[in-house]
Protein 1
Amino acid sequence: MSRPEILFPLFADLETLEGVGPKSAKAFAGLGVEKPKDLLFLLPHSGIDRARRASVRDVIPPTTVTVEVTIGGHFPPLNKGRPYRVMVQDSALEFQLVFFHARGDYLKTLLPTGQKRLVSGRVEVFDGIAQMVHPDHILRLEEAGELPQFEPVYPLVAGITQKLVAKAVTAALARLPELPEWIDPSQKAKEGWPNWIDAIRAAHAPKTNADFSETAPARQRLAYDELFAHQVTLSLARASMRKAKGRASVATGALQKTVMEALPYKPTGAQSRAVAEITADMANPLRMNRLLQGDVGSGKTLVAFLALLVAVEAGGQGVMMAPTEILARQHLHGLVELAALAGVRLELLTGRDKGAERARKLEDLAEGRIHILVGTHAVFQKDVHFQDLRLAIIDEQHRFGVEQRMELGAKGQSADVLVMTATPIPRSLALASYGDMDISVLDEKPPGRKPVQTALVSTGRMDEVVEKLRHAVAEGRQAYWVCPLVEDSEVLDYASAEARFQHLRAALGEGVVAMVHGQMPPSEKDAAMAGFVAGRTRVLVATTVIEVGVNVPNASIMVIERAESFGLAQLHQLRGRVGRGSAHSTCLLMYQAPLSEGGERRLKVLRDTEDGFRIAEEDLAMRGAGDLIGTAQSGLPRFRVADMERQTALMAVAQSDARKLLHDDPALASPRGRAVRNLLWLLDQDRAIRLIAVG
Ligand code: ADP
Ligand code: MG
């Protein structure tokens, strides 16, 4: 799809704008401005009141003042390092303009004695005399109209001044074309939004501070444009993914039934709902691209397994990828018996499989004798071939990048894809980063879970904590002890865990304490985990390797050292390791006093709630969207106008509108569809443009 001609002037070189040379064009890149159109979306963040005053005497300094003055005498500095002064007289007061390191001849032409000028700048009182140091503006009276009453202030980078931005923006605004409306007319009317061209102009010509608010109609419209363009892209991606020769995997439900009957519990309502959604989606010939979102302990594994059985019953195979070896093994242990019961062969493949045994597994897989493969990313190695892969599941996807999600899609050319995440993403973020997927939510936990009692304890009370732990162990309870990540270094990390391990072993007894961390040889890691799962060891000292997914129901105590150094989401995940059995559970958040204000606020949020969504919302409010899931990794866009924390509702509207538009007009060929193409160009939605191009 080629760029519409009407947009050409906005896509010309930046240097074609008056006042922009090669050097400043380069500097503009630092602001994300490469073409005239980018200037349109570079919005001022605040404004300066430049309303004319009769006299400096009317204001309380220090403050910014704009007055008309008559220029008096010039007083060059007597000594080097002293300023150059120019006396000026407004309607009621004489004051000084002050310049450091100024060239006298330049100032003489700029400020000729006896003439009138409009000056604007910050007025201060120094030694009882009002002065304006380096005025922001000095204008001849006939130019005075150029200075807006309320001057927008733009973000800057080195090599770019306010004046330069203002000039370049003015030049870019002069190229604004009238474009047909792309927003749904009823939505626009309901919100009272201006046309695009008026919104852009208004955003660059603020009248009051209220115009910078995200609720100002012009800003809101431009924010919506951004969210909408992003959602159109995601919807196009979704449509093209679904269209890609999907296949119908239809199951009778017999295998699911066999497994359900063997389970000691009933699925929760949310689990049944998710299984039904997934089963229906798989039966559909369109390719599934679905996110299963469920807080820690909500029972995603069972849902995944029942989905895998659909693939098997339809005559194909399924694969489930976990982010760590420990988790992959846990899936194997948890599922292998149930699978056998259903007559299904489930095998594990990880990086540790080598030689003849691995070759045999690969052969069995290629010939369809293995029905379900569980593993780490080793399941994606080039030589791994399936006979008929119908469903690919990624567990705990926040550990994987978007790339891997794509890779997995490529493996089974037409396999359905299910991504599972325990990160309770606030809705706005889910819409932004997973808008190309359909979402099933497990919003209900299995019954009988007891709340985890969470307490904040200072490191100073270490001995007390160890003493309590000794009692708990004597009562047959099990505990995790999580050591902090030291400066992101695996090695230091390991050293601190090792030291704590020795300490606890000395305090609690040799055979009682085990340790796992990322630097251990794999076999030792397995042995340590196995000993803890079987209850032979009672305390497991660990680095954050245990963060995701580990399931040991008898463990009822979680101690987290230096809890203040972890993120909220991570702490929530860690705490989710306990409270899984029938016993009463405790989580101790140990911190190093004194806590920073932010640190205290974070830990208190955790103490006060176990609701993952509330924690995620708080996290978002405290940290901002970019930090929350890591912009690059999540594929989360950088919005220039929209504020993802505060414009959640708009994001939802944008998604439903985008999906509806593409449903009605998949090729964007209608008049509104054509208008939307302009928007996609303006907002650099290249991915969308390519998708339209392939049709
Ligand atoms: P997560 O969503 O964190 O992956 P898991 O799938 O590991 O959760 O499940 C956590 C625990 O809950 C497991 O011990 C599992 O057997 C158990 N479980 C799952 N579904 C139910 C249910 N409907 N009723 C009772 N226990 C369940
Ligand atoms: Mg899990």
Protein 2
Amino acid sequence: MADEDDDIILSELDDDELVQQMQDDLYDGMKEEVEEGVNILLERGWAPYDVLTTALVGGMTVVGRDFRDGILFVPEVLLAAGAMKGGMAILKPLLAETGAPRMGKMVIGTVKGDIHDIGQNLVTMMMEGAGFEVLNIGINRSVDDYIAAIKEFDADILGMSALLTTTMPYMKVVIDQLKADGLRDDYVVLVGGAPLNEEFGRAIGADAYCRDAAVAVETAKEFMARKHNQVAG
Ligand code: B1M
């Protein structure tokens, strides 16, 4: 039996201590503990979005900093990512259950050469929560994958994610192909990912750069409202 002095009973911590402990557990890749923490915060009446941003995204920010500084390495970051996904899986149905009318359809995926998927999964969850239908085509997606998906899904919006400075230029390859195929004006193209910025979004010909999932939702709503107004007018 474990030494009880070393055991931390998550449910006995106050909210601040619990969030801190969850961030530590996420850092250490302790999926079950992170999941338990998520459930406790929800039971205490926290909004799913606040649990997501404060406890999970906050924890991953620390992981990212230490990964950059060479304190953490890929295997540890993978464990942290697994713990984050465990927490996100609990929140997903709650974020999606707004019962909002369908706002529009979006295809999203991470570009070729890039396997980071936490951010785009989060965008997917938030968009679904806001009433969008989302087809998430996953990671390492080629221009052909994107174009096939937007046609098949009859999407309004194409979302692309990139987390590496080496993969973000691929977004332009996709946009250029849309132009070459005469399809560019049929879709709103939104891009996001930690290394991007507004200037990059403009330079590659995207409609907008989205700093985070909440901005992606707001931006998508704005573009859909404009589209509906155009149709009505
Ligand atoms: Co990687 N990695 N990684 N990694 N990794 C970064 C991105 C890095 C910044 C770490 C660092 O050095 N500080 C660095 C990139 C440096 C650079 O390019 N300048 C890096 C590196 C170098 C690498 C490898 C090359 C490491 C190696 O192998 N030596 C390798 C590359 C693999 C590949 O893709 N080919 C690699 C691998 C990995 C893991 C597999 C271990 C793991 C990914 C696990 C997974 O995703 N399933 C991983 C992780 C977890 C990270 C960090 C730590 C965290 C990323 C994350 O999930 N953040 C990351 C450091 C960091 O970003 N601070 C890092 C949380 C997430 C919620 O945020 O993804 O930014 P983010 O998404 C946000 C917004 O950006 C925005 O909304 C989201 C939610 O608010 N957004 C969008 C994102 N996509 C959007 C799309 C939209 C709209 C908004 O469309 C409309």
Protein 3
Amino acid sequence: MAKQITEHVSWVGKVDWELTRFHGDEYSTHRGSSYNSYLVRDEKVALIDTVWQPYDREFVSRLKQEIDLKAIDYIVMNHNEIDHSGALPELMREIPDTPIYCTKKGEAIIRGHYHQDWNFVNVKTGDTLPLGKHSLTFVEMTMLHWPDSMLSYFDGDGGIVFSNDAFGQHFATESLYNDKVVEADLMYEAEKYYANILNLYSPLVTKKIQQILAMNLSIAMICPSHGVIWKDNPTQIVEKYLAWADAYQENQVTIVYDTMWQSTRKMAEAIADGIREAQPDTTVKVLNITHDDKNDVITEIWRSKAVLVGSPTINYGHSFAIAGLLEMMKGLKLKKKKAASFGSYGWSGDAVKQLTAKLQEAGFEVVNDGIAKLWMPDEQNLDDCKAYGREFAQSL
Ligand code: FEO
């Protein structure tokens, strides 16, 4: 069912309650997601974005219940990753000549995915599309988070920002608005989304938000392409983004490890004890990368001022799961975070050196050479780990 959100704007997207994995298996979606599409009706009608391909027929059929498709004058594609452009082929079968407004890169991406010669109109920052009494203005959001990304601003109804992925959350809800859901759940999903998808583009986030703020736009709502619409104090999420983009950290240390026979786990817990002794006000989280969700672990690391990564030595290397986590940590370009490594071993003991090198390569400020213990740690070894935790805390 379509949902009217303002005089001129209706939500016509799809809430995906069943989604558990996004971007293949790269991102966990514990609370599902939504693919938000909007109809803007003035003297002319614009459809903003579509939905993911598995819901293409459902989307088009529900859209037909809301409007005669031939009454859609323009399609605006703010971003053309498959979760938003996936229903275009089904829609364009019905209205093949309708112009598609998108960036030049957007056209290239649509052509690259669907191999169709549709009626593309390329737009740039500052271009406007008059709809009657009101207009849409486009702002390129290059690399936030794809080369084609853009934002559309509607100057009716107090000002509506259609921001696509920016300010989104993977969060299924029928309630639609930010003040109609549990705030802690919403903010966790917004943080997880920023940490895992947008953090590496933080310098661009700051620059782009400053550019948009300088436009002095009136903003009644921010309508992203996933999750809730920011209606109650809508710019709160913009302020959050500015804070998150500025090497965000809380007074938290995250210890993440893998373990084969519990030796590295015991080391992790002893190190945590040492940190708590030295810094009782610091939140310390101890996470097992094979039990805890990788994207939740990344969110905890993103919140932290420091991280300790532990792995046993296996096959003269380190664990498969820790290797994957370190690859994610490197890709997200986390800034101003201290780090060190630890792990147990039986003979060669290569893991700690490898973890230290990978943490440095990932841009962390490594504060020492790490700690390694042979076989199962005894009381003395655990005391050493506790002392190591105290020293680590003192170096922060
Ligand atoms: Fe929600 Fe980048 O697609």
Protein 4
Amino acid sequence: MIKKIAVLKGDGIGPEVVEQAIKVLEAVSEISNIRFVYIDALIGASAIDKTGNPLPDETIDICNNSDAILLGAVGHPKYDNDPNAKIRPEQGLLKIRKTLGLFANIRPIITYDILNSISPLKEENIKNVDFVVYRELTGGIYFGDKGRKNENEAYDCANYSVEEITRISKLAFEAAQKRAKHLTLVDKANVLETSRLWRETVKKIAKKYPDVTLDFMFVDNAAMQIILNPSFFDVILTENMFGDIITDEASVITGSIGMLPSASVGNKISLFEPIHGSYPQASGKNIANPYGTILSAAYLLDSFDMFEEANKIRKAVEQALNEGYVTIDINKKKYYGTNEIGDYIAKSILSLQ
Ligand code: IPM
Ligand code: MN
């Protein structure tokens, strides 16, 4: 069997972390009857540099003709502090999500015992933390009307339709059914009309999933509970911007944002990427943490129903962590390079046969 993977390395540390995930996929290929064909495509600042466009049409065509997309990271500091920049790398990311209809961004918060001591939270609070955030990805304030009314006033509108809320809610309820059967809708229904529509809609959908306990939490309180009592959560369902913010917050529980993978799914093709950014200061130094991307490759294999191989990657990562194979963000005294970790995981996949 042959699977085509669109590879969007992007900016900063994107190319080097993606390279490690590809090493791991190649190891998987060696132990299975699947072959991967990788097709590189441009996105982000590197696409702007080469074509003037953060998401060239060619990239969309390549993605549409692939079985899955593996993405590194997008962003470059030369655009961050220029409020007048009309073209920005992030537009590429937003456009690919919208164009390919990737409406659900799934971000699992996984803890590893071995990393608990570097978490900023107390160890006793991290025990049993295992939750997943279903972040809506193609609606809300990110995609509503926006603009300048005049020199002194700007606006960003948040819109949601019942249809947009329903399709991700179903996925979140289905996930909850396979997990601890507890779903928390995070919103700001005491203030926002869109949040009230989310509550109304999710309450109706919940009737079809009577085995799932549904509760509601305002986002400000959720931000607090993620720190105070993270093991309360099983599945969090939330809109686009709240999901962006609380997943960065939740990522630190695990010890390093560099560890966390994500999957963005829609009706057809899915995209897999680490949740961290392009971290340009680390680019080319062989210090970036590749685990988030390697674990994203495991989710990519799940999407091909290659569950056994995906779990091999997860197992190899866990073993490597236990043996101290970590990057400098995790252990400043004893650390390995990005490349060495990629090689190590690929090698252990082969020996785990
Ligand atoms: C993310 C990122 C993006 C987002 C940015 C780069 C546009 O922070 O994937 O979480 O806000 O969605
Ligand atoms: Mn983010």
